[in-house]
Amino acid sequence: MIWQDTTITGTNTYRVIQGQAQVILSVTRNVSSTAGGTQRSDTTTTVNYTYDGNGVLSGATGDVRGTSGSQVFNDANRNNVVDAGEMIWQDTTITGTNTYRVIQGQAQVILSVTRNVSSTAGGTQRSDTTTTVNYTYDGNGVLSGATGDVRGTSGSQVFNDANRNNVVDAGEMIWQDTTITGTNTYRVIQGQAQVILSVTRNVSSTAGGTQRSDTTTTVNYTYDGNGVLSGATGDVRGTSGSQVFNDANRNNVVDAGEMIWQDTTITGTNTYRVIQGQAQVILSVTRNVSSTAGGTQRSDTTTTVNYTYDGNGVLSGATGDVRGTSGSQVFNDANRNNVVDAGR
Amino acid sequence: MIWQDTTITGTNTYRVIQGQAQVILSVTRNVSSTAGGTQRSDTTTTVNYTYDGNGVLSGATGDVRGTSGSQVFNDANRNNVVDAGR
Fold it and tell me: Which residues constitute the domain of residue A273?
């Protein structure tokens, strides 16, 4: 257990109301980094307070601006060694609004809406998500619960070799985005709303619409008695599919209705380890089961990936394997009558 | 109609590129035989994936090595009968 400190600097602006100096504006900057210096955060929270004619706090509004970032391994020279300059920052821009309610004379956050926008150094991956959290308080103004959700997109640039010349021509790097929708369930531990369950659905399809994926990732987080993240477990469920040519009338032409979906059922488990306060996937085991529309071909494979991290929680490597079977139905003319009899 | 299955075993080798674990080498072995055991196949497919400096898949090369076989009638004693071991 190590300390991870945040440096706080702020200014408060006051107005004298009914002979009392009341804070009407607070601007607070929070700067933190992990022990190994591989994660950082720098955000500024602004709160405007309003008072009635008697100097009683009547409301507050506020926002959050800043960045958070992680160092990632950019193996620029492809030698699989972390050389000088190959750990680069990948930052996220944070903008948010907080809605307050005055409870027992205190301005309490009842709704926070935070947008996180990030992209990789080369600009080939991007993410834009908005997290909403609704906080509830008991009659004494003590935080009693929270609910929330996540909405947004993430995407990667992929090579769309439209002219089939195997060269990346102008306009052939296209975005392939994933729509993200999720819900977060919180529990109040030591006065803080902690995520104990996140359920996130990712839906994507390729530009031409010939491939699709729809998966839901569930993560259960556990905390120790002090509210410190102590572990996580999770799974993945969903489908992925491709359109295939089903030449039903045997004319070798793609007629209407002859492009059909061939889906794969995905079930998996993720094993996590808490590193530098973050739950990191160290093992993923994913089973893919598929069969063709007519049921004459089938596949059942399990892919295992072991992830490794350095002491600072930065992904440093991975190994994996695939095990399974694939099969086709064949005509076993056991009785030699040249007819597909039952069971033969 | 009977199922004719192939056993799949493989290893994937990853490299961390732009903070993501990307497969740079996959080696997959497919082993199958027919129900009656008269045909068999054992192949290994190797794919090397390449990525550009931004971690985007830019190409792949690969090969397949292996054997497939069928049992044939070797009428060694020329009696036109499938004798044991022939």
Answer: 210-344
